[in-house]
Write a structure and sequence with these properties.
Elements: H1 4-18, E1 24-33, E2 44-49, E3 54-61, E4 64-74
Antiparallel strand pairs: 1-4, 2-3, 3-4
């Protein structure tokens, strides 16, 4: 089973790779784990970033959301 903390960490890593995010983690909100992710499951990670310093993430399997959340960063 893929732990939720790993999912959040991967989303933050990829968010920092693809967007210019403020340096400091502030809080995690709207966190939802809808389905268990098991070894061998293929996932797609969808990321979006807005001017408020929020990174929205969504993991999808076969087109269905399996987990999602929002990470807020601050200067």
């Amino acid at each position: 089973m893929l732990a939720g903390v790993v999912q959040v960490d991967w989303a933050i890593q990829q968010g920092r790779r693809h967007f210019t995010l403020p340096p400091n983690f502030k809080r995690l909100t709207a966190l939802k784990f809808l389905r268990v992710i098991m070894p061998g499951n293929e996932l797609q990670l969808s990321l979006s970033h807005n001017s408020k310093g929020e990174l929205d993430f969504r993991y999808l399997r076969d087109g269905a959301t399996v987990s999602s959340g929002r990470v807020l960063f601050a200067d």
